């Protein structure tokens, strides 16, 4: 009977050790994912701040036209 008790106690200890290891692995994985999410949110916030400071009022004449389009327009106006 003592043998049975010793083996059972040993098995429970082994089970408890495996359980603790798995919990630690899951905790580390979860912490890593949380850090990724925090970093992503931080970068997203910084980008939104930078984009909000950009001037969004762009005039159509401020955008340069392609040289090919310009030369084509010049050629058609000459004809």
UniProtKB/TrEMBL annotation:
Superkingdom as given in the UniProt entry: Eukaryota
Species annotation: Plasmodium falciparum (isolate NF54)
Protein name, UniProt field: Rifin
């Amino acid at each position: 009977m003592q043998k049975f008790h010793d083996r059972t106690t040993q098995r429970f200890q082994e089970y408890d050790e495996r359980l603790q290891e798995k919990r630690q692995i899951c905790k580390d994985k979860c912490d890593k994912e949380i850090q990724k999410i925090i970093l992503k949110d931080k970068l997203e916030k910084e980008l939104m701040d930078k984009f909000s400071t950009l001037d969004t009022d762009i005039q159509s004449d401020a955008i340069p036209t392609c040289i090919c389009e310009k030369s084509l327009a010049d050629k058609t106006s000459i004809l």
